[in-house]
Amino acid sequence: MSIDTVGNAKETPVAQQPFKELGLKPDEYARIKEILGRRPTSSELAMYSVMWSEHCSYKSSKVHLRQFGEKAPHSDALLVGIGENAGVVDIGHGWAVTFKVESHNHPSYVEPYQGAATGVGGIVRDIISMGARPVAVMDPLRFGDPLNPDTRRVLTGVVSGIGGYGNCLGLPNIGGEIVFDPSYQGNPLVNALCVGTMKHEDIHLAAASGVGNSVILYGARTGGDGIGGVSVLASETFDADGPAKRPSVQVGDPFMEKLLIECTLEVLHAGLVEGIQDLGGAGISCATSELASNGEGGMHVWLDRVLLRDHTLSPEEILMSESQERMCAVVLPNKVEEFMAVCKKWDVEAVVIGEVNASGRLTVDWHGEQIVDVPPRSVAHDGPVYDRPFARPVWLDARQSDTPTAERLARPTTASEIRDTLLRMVAAPNLAAKTWVTSQYDRYVRGNTVLAQPEDSGMIRVDEETGLGVAVSTDCNARFAALDPYRGAQLAFAESYRNVAVTGAVPLAVTNCLNFGSPEDPAVMWQFEQAVTGLADACLEMGTPVTGGNVSFYNQTGEVAIHPTPVVGVLGVIDDVARRTPMAWQEDGELIYLLGETTDELAGSEWAHEVHAHLGGLPPVLDLTKERTLAEILVAGSRDGMFSAAHDVSDGGVIQTLVEMAIRSNIGARLWVPEDLDPFVFMWSESATRAVVVVPRSEEMRFSAMCEARNFAATRIGVVDSQIGSEYGLSGQALRLENIYGSEVSVTISDLSQASEKTLPALFG
Amino acid sequence: MTARVGVVTFPGSLDDHDAARAVTLAGADAVSLWHGDANLHNVDAIVLPGGFSYGDYLRCGAIARFAPVMEKVIEAAHAGMPVLGICNGFQILCESHLLPGALTRNDHLHFICRDQKLKIENNSSAWTRDYELGQEIVVPLKNGEGGFVADDYTLDQLEAEGRVIARYLDLNPNGSRRDIAGITNVAGNVVGLMPHPEHAVEDLTGPTTDGLGFFTSVLTTLLAGQAVSV
Q1: Active site annotation includes B108
Q2: Which domain covers residue B67, as residue numbers?
Q3: Is B198 a catalytic residue?
């Protein structure tokens, strides 16, 4: 095979190059030629094509994402902000936490098991490249109609992939989401979040500084997986209709990743590393150009030194390969030997592939011939930026005016209809117990899991001596975002913020995974712009900075985009995890209070979706000042021991919250509908800024005084009562709801639990 | 003198840190042993923790069995040293022929993580003597290949000799024959257990603290300094 060298590119300036097949636009190709002052070599073209892709360059989202930085509230907790592999937050006592969520949507549709597995692997490497030990993972997932046979293929593969990879890494899976909606049928969303912890002094950044330092590639060997469009360059005769040369979905090896984690933490703690970068999308191209661009600007790479799984790979393919479980480190020359010894201890292969220099160029040789000579910034950071047109979709007015009133959508109007609706709703796929999925994930490993699914947040003990810990939640009701992307993004943030506060942790920082359709559709671009603005505004108002995130565009099939799905993750800190508030109430006589106000807000609700397949109206009103007050009450109540339990109110309304608490504790309760509310609205409205708290009688005075002082609505709606079932002739623990259209509804917890637990196994077991 | 309990780390071990924590909470010194170690650093007992040693490629525990440290562990086990294999450690003990039978893919073909009820059926082994006979405990279970199998003759023999140390109650989570969750060798010093007692040693992080008994039992055994037998 002939090699397209830099010399060759100068001599043959007009050679035809397959830039279109690689996804570059004619003006982008022209710009590359302008930067280089000649045509790119095939290796350079490959590098630019992947680094300037939407996935790597954020070219369509950049102009909007700037808001997260511009509107970032001042936070003393922020040690490393947006722009690095992941943001880092100070949680006190010398500890820092890093967390980030990323998408692996498209690969997971094509090959669910490997797509989801390598999604976990990629986010874990982002966390270790900051110098942190990964301590937990979570997975926000969205699938199509649960009854569509393809949903079964995707869901079972994704869940096995997350479990198969995550369980082998020894990372507890502490939460996430599983949501079904037909809008995700051809575009499931597989987002993966990882949390890592470190001491302040262990923070590392991706920069190649220090002329003469060695660049070491270590981990798995480089193979032909995940090359995708780049195989175009390697084909002597490219046949557009022919079969793909190689699989474009990467294949994961969790055992190698586990070794890579331990090996990386050992070299970092031994002080052997100047700069470090994980290899994910765009492989060696990305790692070398980003390291060089963030450092002093020059790097030389001997590409033929890269250890290969497949000796037939061309240099273009090696540059682009997305083989998993690889890392790149910049190491002082006198520490290379020690670095190699640690790698040997962990049976991790490593090789020096390059050297930092002062040339200001990234140069790559292949067997003595130069195949790349580019300014690294032009590859890594100065890619194209598009301010794409956006416009409010014309159909939105009709959708927003389609309010789910009692006249428009039939509501239950008798106690018996309420009972039927209750049993139907607890079994609805979006509300039903997710045990069938979460029992396939290890939540216990490392022995620091304080809370995990189905609790509101996952909570991890960081410091075993002091009990210092963190809580993390991810949330998004995409139906709200479909009705109003600005408010929908704020509601997603508010729910996640509340889920952290409800456990007693103080919300500190935000990450996000923005899943949208095609940015080339002005309506989608408008949804994106609105969601980003809404989230940035909310973060500013609530004082919680965005520390990093991820954008996934092109989640659409043909003209039909997914619901805009801005998944928001919030991280909070708790001084002593022993003081966390769990969701299960504990004993007889405890008082059940609803915090917050309930109005007739059924637009985008689970009830409207499940019972009527309806999506219309305006999403619930959100008052962020009140949201903040609620969080303060939840945190103060937890700290001062006023709550025996607490649980957020969101999907499925107040009754779903109460049912989940009852199932978790398996103790009955007497509940009643407040006099001024319609029973149906009370039970299934999804008004924002509400939570149920359970207060021991001894704390009631103090609790009421606290709510009164903050002018926050608190309504007594029940009492824990383990005798209520036997009192009314039911077998076992039960919930009795009073004041339901002049009557009562009683249902045993075992009936509710069975209805909730049977749904997922029946669909996917 | 405080007892020294070694916890072996193979590449791919995951619950080594947890096992060491349980050993410490029980009152012993946890000593970290590496798979390449040529000696046992004067430990008095050994835990082979859960995880996926060497990626569990080929067959669970099949490669770990040949690790340098295992040569010494096998020698020590034959000489009477208490050895506890949890999950992947149980698989390694079976592959090493220190215990009979084998662990196979769960009958429902899924990895399963749940709080599992067990009944203690032998409280004379080195690792179970702090339990009451017939005591019911709840500890986490998490495995993909936890189905215990052996031929009928071996199963009859295990039962006749009282070598089934714990059985699953209420639900058999993985298709183990005769609901067997753990067994011991004839001498009672080597125990293999599929569920994870090291994850049930603190109220804060476990479903119970029922698992601590395995780790205090071995201290009782070592303090008594007596030969263990069933």
Answers
A1: no
A2: 4-224
A3: yes
> Which chain B residue has its CA at the smallest distance from A765's CA?
B108
B199 vs A164, A170, A444: nearest CB: A444
Determine, yes or no, domain membership for B16: yes
In a domain, B230, yes or no: no
Do the chains contact at B11 and A255, CB–CB below 8 Å?
yes
Average confidence (pLDDT) over A310-314: 91
Q: How confident is the model at residue B227 (pLDDT cuts 50, 70, 90)?
A: very low
Q: Which of B18, B57, B112 sits opposite A447 (nearest CB)?
A: B18
Angle at A67 between CA A381 and CA A518, to 5 degrees: 70
Nearest to B205 among A168, A438, A450 (CB): A450
How long a stretch of residues is chain A? 765
Q: What is the mean pLDDT of chain A?
A: 94
pLDDT at A228 over 70: no
Cα separations in angstroms, A723 against A244, A593, A730, A738: 66, 20, 10, 16
Query: Active-site residue among B87, B121, B145, B199?
Result: B87
How are strands ordered across the β-sheet holding A546-552? A449-451, A458-461, A469-475, A565-574, A506-515, A546-552
What are the structural domains of chain A?
6-60+207-380 (3.90.650.10)
Residue B228: is its pLDDT beyond 60? no
Domains contained in chain B, number: 1
- With CA atoms as reference, the chain B residue closest to A169 would be B14
Quote the pLDDT of residue B46.
98
**pLDDT score, position B230:** 37
Q: Is the CB of residue A658 less than 8 Å from the CB of residue A692?
A: yes
Q: Label the pairing between strands A95-103 and A189-199.
A: antiparallel
Q: Is residue B67 part of a domain?
A: yes
User: A174 with A443: CB under 8 angstroms?
Assistant: yes
Q: For residues B194 and B145, what is the distance between their CA atoms, to the nearest angstrom?
A: 9
Mutate to test the interface with B, among A349, A445, A586 (most CBs of B within 10 A): A445
Decide if B110 and A167 are in contact by the 8 Å CB cutoff: no
Position B155 in a domain: yes
Q: ipTM of this model?
A: 0.95
CATH of the domain at B94: 3.40.50.880
